[in-house]
Design brief:
about 325 residues, elongated, Rossmann fold, 2 domains, homodimer, five-stranded parallel sheet
């Protein structure tokens, strides 16, 4: 009999169908399992698949008494209370790097789109403004990327792929990361403040955690400056969204490209009504190849767990 | 007395003000000079500044009897009848390479935006579709760029900058160009057909001319294939726009990112109503630095001409 695996987050069927052949999936559609499945079935659940950003705390774990493995679909695991999992001897796995290229692509797309004002430009063509010689919303030419200072916050697999892509645009690349890497050809800054002071475009690629919550606040945005742009493909929690909205409205910063938000799937109205932002619905890792790679990590983690072995992609 | 210079195309004042201090500008706002200025003044015009794509034929030249220099603002000069100019001993200048980085940036932006469906994604967030869990228009994950075959048509300064940027996305880069360059690390294809057959994303960076008019036609788009995307930052004339619209509607190709159109500033309604295109109003070279560089070329060309010397950036 196949092992039972709970689908803990609301995940599209198209993403979980690959697991259905291997495991007996209990998909609660994002609801708590005990509200959807009978107690005796819930009691047998030894493993679950979750989206890393979905809250999964001690109380949630306690409702799944047989739980031994939490497997995150994707690289993030910020929703999982790692201490609570460790205290219950629950292993946590993820899919490191599997989506790094796809996420880095979206980061660069958002950087280009916010600095060159792509959505405003597209609307100007589509609504006939250009054809009828209406005053262009693009009259003030933006600075070139060539020679521009781009700061990358977080130098994990995604940060590295962002940096190597951005460098090809003839930019200067700097970074801040807890660890300094001497093998990287980019300028190191000892703090996020120093990086923001230096750069014009700030790319957020840091792993979300309690320490990084709201580190991008009003003060930091001021350091970025009125010509500054911010791009976030990490987690919404890293940016104080209210402070960002205020800065975008007041012109403290020039623009933002955001793939992630504080309370997904909700992007606040104050944000969605702004012209100087480009917004995408957390599509960073959403490519065919990165789904295949992430699913392979999930299967490998679950197979190892049910085989009594350590997960190959375990969170340390 | 400063030399008289006609502003031949409709150009924003913000772009021509740098010339006003050096030359006596006659700005006809895009109308024929003889309709706006007295005949004796028109007869004194020895030089003009034009946007390279604006038609400037033998008859236009003959209405400016003293004309000795045509100076294109930007790299293109496809609107200028070079034979007619040569026959009248009129030198033609341009601004080669000055905007190459800025144009290449837009090319990559359009590549990312069409493959990752940026404008559809932005609209899905802004109109509340994501927040209210409406079926996502992005459910089908697109292929990753990493490993994708990108073809560059035209390997001049802009094509080279496109290729070096695109390569940083872990793509395979191929190109077709009249001349094969052995110093380039990209695969060479002996024809545009062969390139289109091979690649998934086709980037048009060829110089527009009579030979390249409508070389991207229905047959070529079929070679690109149903997964294929096309990006054009060169000139609208290179693509048979009707054939492209038909291919986009029928799904013969997947999407397009266009900064240039056949009859600018008009983008046809059949194009602007499509969801699988990203459209920008010829903003390729529109950055502060590239305007400064293009203006420096214009000033250098005009200064040399009025000084009786050969223009430093003369079209051969």
């Amino acid at each position: 009999m196949p092992d039972k695996v709970l689908i803990y987050s609301r995940l599209p069927k198209s993403l979980t169908q690959r697991f259905a052949g291997r495991f007996d999936l209990l998909d609660s559609g994002g609801k708590p399992a005990h509200e959807v499945f009978p107690a005796d079935e819930v009691a047998q659940i030894r493993a679950l698949i979750t989206a890393g950003g979905t809250p999964l705390g001690a109380a949630d774990m306690d409702r799944l008494p047989a739980l031994g493995a939490i497997v995150c679909y994707g690289t993030g695991y910020d929703g999982v209370d790692l201490k609570a999992a460790a205290a219950r001897n629950i292993a946590v796995g993820h899919s490191p790097g599997a989506n790094a290229a796809a996420v880095a692509d979206v980061a660069v797309m958002l950087m280009l789109a916010t600095t060159r004002r792509l959505t405003v430009a597209d609307a100007y063509v589509r609504d006939g403004g250009w054809a009828s010689a209406k005053p262009s919303p693009l009259m003030k030419p933006p600075p070139s990327l060539a020679g521009c200072k781009v700061g990358v916050y977080g130098m994990g697999e995604i940060g590295r792929k962002i940096a190597s892509r951005v460098a090809a645009f003839e930019t200067e690349v700097g970074y801040f990361n807890r660890t300094r890497y001497d093998d990287l050809p980019y300028q190191y800054f000892p703090s996020l403040d120093a990086l923001a002071e230096w750069c014009t475009v700030l790319m957020i690629a840091v792993r979300a955690s309690a320490e990084t919550t709201h580190v991008v606040n009003a003060d930091l945005l001021k350091k970025l400056g009125t010509d500054g742009h911010i791009v976030n493909i990490s987690r919404g929690s890293v940016i104080d969204e209210r402070a960002l909205v205020a800065a975008l409205k007041e012109g403290t910063v020039a623009g933002a490209g955001l793939d992630v938000f504080e309370t997904e799937p909700h992007a606040p109205d104050e944000l969605t009504s702004l012209p100087n932002v480009v917004l995408t619905p957390h599509i960073g890792g959403n490519t065919r190849e990165s789904h295949v790679a992430m699913q392979a990590c999930v299967v490998a983690n679950l197979t190892a767990f049910f085989g009594g072995e350590m997960m190959p992609y375990q969170v340390k």
